[in-house]
Amino acid sequence: MISTAALLFKCSFWLYVVSAIAYIICLIRNRSGYCALGKALLILGLCFHTASLGIRYISTGHPPFLNLYEYLISFTWAAVLVYLVIESVYKTRMYGAFVIPLISAFAMVAYFLPSGEVYVMPALKSAWRIPHIATAILAYSAFMVAFVLAILYLVGERTESKADSFWHRRLPPLKSLDQNMYRVMAFGFLMQTLLIITGAMWAQYAWGRYWGWDPKETWALVTWFIYAAYLHTRVTMGWRGRRSAILAIIGFVSVVFTLFGVSLLLSGLHSYA
Q1: Of 39, 133, 127, the residue nearest 91 (C-alpha)
Q2: Domain boundaries of the chain, sorted by first residue
Q3: Burial status of residue 204 (CB atoms within 10 A of its CB: 0-12, 13-18, 19 or more)
Q4: What is the pLDDT of residues 97-146, one digit of tens each?
Q5: Smallest Cα–Cα separation from 44: which of 23, 19, 64?
């Protein structure tokens, strides 16, 4: 059954790739039909992806959260879901030309990782495991979308005075990009806060202490402070636009290092993840 789950995930990956191409063509040619096709393929890919996660869960007896492969397939699933919610609520299909290729890139990493069954360490058998990793997946998915919006904001800012430029004609208004970036990051920050709290509770259960300055704990806290700075400067100092977008980009760099750099380069209690 694990091989079936892996095959379904690979099918979803290729659907995401074709969906990304459709969204990009929609952006370039400004034809809504391609965006509709991209969304349809994305939803179909999400269905395959959901089936893959469900089969893997049934086969292994645990949620697919334990190693880098499982984390990535869950993370990309959540990222697609977050994007579809944003597109449906804010009616901004053009974001797909940037968000879906990035999701596909993360899915491609998982595509080439071993997909075999994972041994469950005794320390991982805790009720805190699911809420901890679920909040991590939601937080990082939101931060990824915010990162894309930040890039688009900076591009839009540079072309704002060029009314006939490609980007000026295709991108949403800067105010809309800034507001959507703020909303997504506020949600991500809430999830990041819950991630740290549930992680501390899990650490207390597993190792008898709430905090041990493990590399991934430390970088999760660094990431939290970056996004806290974003919200603080926006609320108390009125930061908007460019400066906020730069903080969003720095925050996602920290997210990527937390996810890959710490897992692959540094040793610690989270080395299995």
Answers
A1: 39
A2: 121-273
A3: middle
A4: 999 999 999 999 999 988 777 666 666 677 778 888 889 889 999 999 99
A5: 19
The answer to whether the beta carbons of residues 104 and 13 sit under 8 Å apart is: yes
Burial group, residue 162, by CB count within 10 angstroms (0-12, 13-18, 19+): exposed
Q: What is the DSSP string of 116-164?
A: S-----GGG-STTHHHHHHHHHHHHHHHHHHHHHHHHHHHHHHTTT-TT
Burial state string for 17-32 with b = 16 or more CB within 10 A and e = fewer than 16: bbbbbbbbbbbeeeee
Q: Distance between CA 174 and CA 245 in Å, rounded?
A: 11
Task: Provide the whole-model pTM.
Answer: 0.84
Q: How far is CA 120 from CA 49, 66, 217, in A?
A: 23, 8, 20
For helices 68-90 and 96-111, angle between their N-to-C axes, nearest 10 degrees:
170
Contact 131, 184 (CB under 8 A): no
Which alpha helices (H) appear in the chain, and where do they start and end? 2-29, 32-60, 68-90, 96-111, 129-158, 166-170, 174-207, 215-236, 242-256, 262-265
Instruction: Give the span between the Cα atoms of 18 and 14, in whole angstroms.
Output: 6
Q: Which of 74, 158, 67 is nearest to 120 (CA)?
A: 67
- Tell me the per-residue pLDDT of 35-75, one tens digit each, with 9 for 90 and over: 899 999 999 999 999 999 999 888 887 777 778 888 899 99
Q: What is the CA radius of gyration of the chain?
A: 19
